[in-house]
Amino acid sequence: MHFTDLGLSADILRAVTEQGYDTPTPIQAQAIPVVLAGRDLMAAAQTGTGKTAGFTLPILQLLATRAPVKRGKPRCLVLVPTRELAVQVHESVRTYGKHLHLKAAAIFGGVGMGNQLAALRSGVDIIVATPGRLLDHIEQRSADLSAIEILVLDEADRMLDMGFIRDIRKIIGLLPKKKQTLLFSATFSDEIRGLATGLLDNPTSVEVARRNAPAEAVAQAVYHVDRERKKDLLIHLITEHGWHQVLVFTRTKHGADALSDRLLKAGIHAAALHGNKSQGQRQRALDDFKKLKIHVLVATDIAARGIDIDELPHVVNYELPNIPEDYVHRIGRTGRAGSSGEAVSLVCVDELKLLRDIEQVLKRSIEKRVVTGFEPDPRIKAEPIQKPRTGRGQAPNRNQPAGQRKPQTAAKSGKPAGHHFGSRHR
């Protein structure tokens, strides 16, 4: 199958060809015809499957061929969990819609509201937003959702994990009842199915990967080590094996910073990536990692959602995730596009139950290794693992009632939030 077989317009096919693409991925081949037909969609697709183009391409076509019901009002809303994903989706919309006369805005926190306000006031067709910052605009009456024709919930499972469910329901309550809804999630958990019930109208379901299935090309191994020796073992593995591009997962932002500092002191080019970093810091770290100026990127699960690298050779679970399915998502970042990859987990006595839970989900045992000089001390007792606090995304503290939150003031930020697709702002 080729993109030319999917019923896409000449302008969109031209943009796709200019990006060097000819053959759609499985999620694109299945999702695009459903969306073009105007049907609701519930799709299970992980990061790296091409799901973003799977909904941006048909949405662009639908909007370009329809007359707006309310001229100047946004017609499509894409809700995403993180600002990195907002930037990524907005870039996809801009790239594939470059030959169309449509406008879009990326709305997320961590930057001033000035450029976003200007973009919304000038009129946009598509809003790509994190829930928290979008609600801030709604409260300031700078975002009007009364003409939304298409709603996309991207990475819905992560939005639920981050505690956005109340914000999402509040936003949905402001949308027209008659609309097309597309829901994308890494897994169809009970919570996701509950969200879909009543929101989607007789949706078509698409699942492109076996549920909770890790990439077949990923070699997995567990290194047993004491909790206090993990940093030293990681340094040993990186230097001994000459690893040049390693994504390392920690549970907390503080842990990411501490580990990054320790690696730097050991002479390893490293940077931390998490929600407390500014948008500029996060983008620079990611760019440097892709260009191999930084060899190790230490990230939390939420911050890593925006990372999309085709040939990432190594993923390290410095700490095992509390949710077994998150292990599958983490290691799925390597072994992509036909490349081999390696996923290593450093496991101390505290994490043995987490390891058992992961192996139960995988339905297999992971190879166990011990490095000479780093053998775990059997006298050390397990300690309770403190669960990290759930992130609330890019907005102010949404636990507070709306009237009690301090309004965010406009400030200078980076590039404009809204673009004509034909422009090439960077």
CATH topology term of the largest domain: Rossmann fold
Q: Main beta sheet, described?
A: 8 strands, mixed
Strand residues, percent: 15-25%
Could you tell me the mean pLDDT? 84
Radius of gyration over C-alpha positions, nearest whole angstrom: 22 Å
Topology as a string of helices (H) and strands (E): HHEHEHEHEHEHHEHEEHEHEHEEHEHEE
Structural class: alpha/beta
State the low-pLDDT regions, or none: 390-416, 419-426
How many structural domains does the protein architecture include?
Answer: 2
Shape: elongated
Count every beta strand, where a strand is a DSSP E run of 2 or more residues. Answer: 15
Strand order of the largest sheet: 7-1-6-5-2-4-3-15
Which structural traits does this protein have?
Rossmann fold; alpha/beta; eight-stranded mixed sheet; single chain; 15 strands; disordered C terminus
